[in-house]
Amino acid sequence: MPNTAEVVKPVASLMGVTKRIGSKTLISDLTLDIPPGQIFGFLGPNGAGKTTTIRMMVGLISISRGDILICGRSIKDHFEEAIANVGAIVENPEMYKFLTGYQNLRQYARMVPGVTKERINEVVELVGLSQRINDRVKTYSLGMRQRLGVAQALLHRPKLLILDEPTNGLDPQGIRELRDYLRKLCQTEGTTVFVSSHLLSEMELMCDSVAIIQNGRLIDVKQLKTVGDAAVPVSQTFFEVDNPEAALAQIGQGVIMEGGLAVDAVREEIAELNAKLVAAGIKVYSIKAMSRSLEDQFLEITGGEGIG
Amino acid sequence: MGEFASLIHNENIKIFRRLRTWIMLVLLALMSALFPALIHFTTNGSNVVGLWDSFRTTVTIAFFLNTIFTALVAADSVAGEFTWGTIKLLLIRPWSRSKILLSKYISLVIFSLVSTGVLILFGYGSAFIFSSGAAGISGDMVMGWGQGEYVFMLILCSYIELFLTAAIAFMISSVFRSSGLAIVLSLSIMFTKDIFIAIFNPDRYEWANYLIFAHMNLSNYVVSDTGPGGATLGFAIAVLAVYYVVFMAVSWIVFRKRDVAA
Ligand SMILES: Nc1ncnc2c1ncn2[C@@H]1O[C@H](COP(=O)(O)OP(=O)(O)OP(=O)(O)O)[C@@H](O)[C@H]1O
Ligand SMILES: [Mg+2]
């Protein structure tokens, strides 16, 4: 997938990352670059390996093969330097329940240099927890803990923010706010956000690009062309052909589907692609314009196969 | 990358901001204060128990409780973070796992010193009040030790035993990530070691000399040159030191290497 990401240095690169536990391969040969200044989605059905990948990115579990670089530093060999650029939530944000929200944040503030009281208050304000920050976390709702989780991840102004299903437990207003301040963070501080989810419609609204993962394998990386805040549905064209594999080889992009190939293409390109296919001796039975939400595509790509 | 002292500060907060910790310290203080009073009121006038005798008895009993409480704190040290799920947030900071574990261990030792301090303070204070300064029946000297020195040596030996029990609990907590298992195993070693020595008597079995059970209680050496199986104090300390190093090495190796998928 050639794109502009090759010009700028990625904030994180996963290079042939494989995770094996016993005889089970949870992630196989995952290669992915996360370009800076983007909100990058990581989409996959339950059990696809999103959390497992994120655990490797933050050094919680070992990498069986391959390596992960964060700002050019290997998380394996230079853990402390690499992780200093990262703020993260891995699965549910668990906090010390016997401490207040503020005391929890102080815990993490002490572990990095340069986080002032003003910064803590600023972050608390940002996630909308000012009212309850001096209450013990045991009295918090799931959504409030989620907000506190985002707050602890932001404290040290990380270059890369990794959020594992951050909308889990948030109310519509909370989701909306999260989306807004992630966007703001991205634009004003240049923070790169890597966010996993299986809420597809969410990803469409939030992300600049998405990587789709299933059964521990990277299936596709898509750019979502955004206008303002709302993503324009990706327009695709479906070529019904006799030999989809050969058609894919000819065109060099697209997704093989039942009886044909779905290709990203604009109006002019369709005719050219058709000519190309015909010239290559591939029978084209029909050409259909498809305007679909990412959700449809996602279900098409990953659907049919169960969790596993 | 920041100050290591602030890691220890964090760990201290996690211990001392818990209600449980304060309940333990209050219980320990009450118990230490109660025993000299009990001794005072249960002995009649002709048979006065002196300050040091009263304090010594109190120390011996209260240290049981002290050891149990310290083992509880040690058991929660690593396993608690796994149970709470907070380990995921703790380990993604710019600190090596070794240093995080070290900060946990140091804060555990700090707790053990605080609780021992509470025991001594309340035990001695109460013994002082309830013994009316009488010399008591055991005279001025015990086997060449002054009475105060003798009690001090007993406290030192009891602390060493507590220190090792805590190290075992800490290791199990780090290896199995289960505070229940850590408490049960470490305390059962403490309570069954005498039975163990009785069955595998170091006098009869040469190899039993190398078991930690035979040497955890060093108080024999205060009044005698040889301990169980004719071992010398130097030998006993060497055996304990080797066990201690092994416990620590296992804790660190496992904590550094294992996947965190809580
Ligand atoms: N410790 C483990 N041992 C064996 N298999 C595991 C382990 N942890 C996770 N798995 C398996 O790895 C796969 C990926 O799990 P993972 O938690 O990464 O999925 P996910 O994409 O985060 O899913 P979800 O959307 O449900 O959060 C699953 O099939 C899971 O059963
Ligand atoms: Mg997950």
Globally, the shape of chain A reads elongated
Q: Decide which structural class fits the backbone of chain A.
A: alpha/beta
Percent strand of chain B: under 5%
Helix content of chain B: over 70%
Distance between the termini of chain A: 27 Å
Poorly predicted regions of chain A? 226-233
Annotation, overall tally of beta strands of chain A: 16
Largest sheet of chain A: 6 strands, mixed
Mean pLDDT of chain B: 89
Would you count the extended β strands of chain B for me?
2
Strand content of chain A: 25-35%
Bound molecules: adenosine-5'-triphosphate, magnesium ion
Oligomer kind:
heterodimer
Average pLDDT of chain A, to the nearest integer? 87
- How many structural domains in the coordinates of chain B? 1
Q: Indicate the percent of residues in helices of chain A.
A: 25-40%
**Number of helical runs of chain A?**
10
What is the spatial order of strands in the main beta sheet of chain B? 1-2
Instruction: Using the alpha-carbon principal axes, give the shape of chain B.
Output: globular
SSE pattern of chain B: HHHHHEEHHHH
Domain ABC transporter (chain A): 12-240
GO molecular function (chain A): ATP binding
Family (chain A): Belongs to the ABC transporter superfamily.
Protein name (chain A): ABC-2 type transport system ATP-binding protein
